[in-house]
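Here is a typical protein record:
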Amino acid sequence: IIRGNLTLDTTNHKAYYASTHSAISLSRLEYSLLEALVKADGQFVNTSELVKLVGGPFFEQQALKNALYTLDKKLTRAGLIMTQRGSNYRIR
């Protein structure tokens, strides 16, 4: 999946910025969140939907919020912007 300068290798669960051959270091949860946000194609996704997509019914929302925070920091270093509006997130 390609979104702007971000490429997701969905087979190997890796993300690459621009044309580099080095993967962005992501935890399994961070990658799952990133994939869900990229598949939303610029639309906002709320935390309840993210929990369903990546965590299942027994997933702890605090873990999700922590992973979104660290993912945002990593994406910022890669030149991407994750926008938050209330409990909704998207990648631009």
Remarks:
- The two ends are 15 Å apart (CA to CA).
- The mean pLDDT is 86.
- The chain has three helices and six strands.
